[in-house]
Design a protein that fits this description.
Length: 249
């Protein structure tokens, strides 16, 4: 009887999370369509137009408002639609840009700049547009370029190239502020923040071994940008384990 109640409660929670995801995914898709007027446009111009809108319109915050305000789940962060509505920090703005770009057919993933001290410091977006890979900062309104004005990607930074910058549409910024906080070690740029907790540091060591270091260049799947899907997946996994254990007993 207890197992039946647990199954019903968890199944209901998962269904609610999926419905919430579907409703919010529509909001973000509409946001992308309203920004990129030409459907199917996968050019760098389309990507910078969308990231420029994120830069101009989303209110900056020190931290994202958690999807579910329970300390145990704070690491899930805010939903993309929640960041659109309430604002967000660099990770929240990157999350909106990644999900919206993906909805528009432009593959995108999170990239993290590390400080010279070794600590993960700031989130960017890398896009795979028609012209190639490009790094974009929707928080500071910047596009990463090389000395010849060409856009650069993660591989370029990790090879030791020191970038310069140009402005996103609607931005007049051409560089990061000149202070110690922005003393980035560009060659140590990675695709995730692995220094946030001991769990992440431990996971990074294991994944680095399994992937022979390639984990630092692999985008995380876009579905992980949706806290609803992450939580629903976790609940389903727990339910499977509990049911399997009950059968074994």
């Amino acid at each position: 009887m207890v197992l039946l109640i647990l199954n019903v409660v968890v199944a209901s929670a998962v269904l609610g999370l999926l419905v919430h995801f579907i409703l919010e995914a529509r909001v973000v898709s509409q946001y992308a369509r309203a920004t990129i007027s030409n459907p199917g446009d996968t050019s760098l111009n389309a990507a910078t137009q969308l990231c420029g809108r994120v830069y101009r319109e989303i209110v900056g915050r020190e931290d994202d408002r958690s999807f579910i305000r329970v300390s145990l789940l704070n690491s899930l962060g805010a939903t993309p639609a929640g960041v659109l509505r309430d604002g967000g920090c660099c990770s929240g703005k990157a999350r909106v840009a990644i999900v919206a770009l993906s909805a528009a057919g432009i593959p995108a993933g999170q990239v993290t700049l590390y400080h010279s001290s070794g600590k993960a410091q700031h989130c960017l977006v890398e896009v795979a547009c028609r012209e190639g890979r490009a790094l974009i900062d929707p928080t500071y309104g910047l596009v990463f370029i090389d000395g010849g004005g060409r856009c650069v990607g993660l591989t370029d930074l990790r090879s030791g190239m020191q970038p310069t910058f140009r402005s996103l549409p609607g931005s007049s910024t051409t560089a990061y502020p000149d202070n110690e906080y922005y003393d980035f070690d560009f060659a140590n740029t990675q695709t995730a923040n692995w220094t946030r907790s001991w769990r992440r540091r431990s996971a990074h060591r294991g994944l680095s071994f399994l992937t022979r270091g390639r984990i630092d260049e692999i985008w995380q799947p876009v579905f992980l940008e949706w806290p609803q899907l992450v939580l629903a997946s976790g609940l389903v996994a727990i339910l499977i384990v509990v049911n399997a254990a009950s059968v074994a007993l």
